Amino acid sequence: MSAQKLSRREALKLLAAATGAAALSTLPPAWSKPDLQVGALPAHAQTSLLHILNTPFLPAEIDLGQSYCWDGIIIRFTAAITPPTAGIVLQYSLSYNPTGAPGAITSPNPTTGTVATNASGQASIDVTVLPASPFFGTEGTLTVVWSFVNPADGTNSVSQNHDIVVAC
Amino acid sequence: MDPNLYLWHEEGFQLETLNGEIVLLHPVRNIIIHGSQTASLVWQLCDGSRTVGAIVELLSAAYPESADDIQNDVPAAIQMLINQGALTTK
What we know:
The structure holds two protein chains of two kinds.
Chain A: H1 8-19, E1 36-39, E2 52-54, E3 60-62, E4 73-82, E5 89-98, E6 103-107, E7 112-116, E8 122-131, E9 138-148, E10 157-166
Antiparallel strand pairs in A: 2-4, 3-4, 4-8, 5-7, 5-9, 6-8, 9-10
Chain B: E1 7-9, E2 14-18, E3 21-26, E4 31-35, H1 37-45, H2 52-62, H3 67-83, E5 87-89
Antiparallel strand pairs in B: 1-5, 2-3, 3-4
Helix pairs in contact in B: 2-3
């Protein structure tokens, strides 16, 4: 149905329905040029943009030419934030839980630290685990927990596990 | 302005109404838009279901004595809301 064929009352009823007006009397009684004033919010009403932290990539083994099992294994963990933003500082916390022969994280040292996101909103750390004994290797689960350093950047945290086996 | 354009509210704006007037807030973009009663009508009709032409026709039928003004006022108000990022078109 064309609006041109509507009576005024029908059009006002449609307007009231479309705008949620409780009664026709709440609609403007006459047309006036729409007045729009644009301004800036006062500082106390502004909010910063919060990011969401996630782990879109599986941990990946990095080959740096380790020749022997006692050279250990290097695993790259990557976190990402949405929307992608550079320079957001993330904190990581690493742990290694051996389920077989023992081993330990040797890099990064200490196992907690911070890293900033790149232009793609991603931050990575390379984690080296060495077996305690060159004869037995090591087997276990690496865990990294990512979180925001500044709560104004975001508030969630994520963790990621990766099972490793270094056989000798 | 193309009268066949459909218009949608851009996400992120918070709507407050008072005595028929409208206040649109976008805290992240630090924008506040205050609109009169008729500006409020235009905003609320831009819900994705109507073209610019349909909005002009509906308002012209509701306020026939101002039909000529509405032909110019409505596209101008819509263009301003688009310029402020409050409306998007398809």
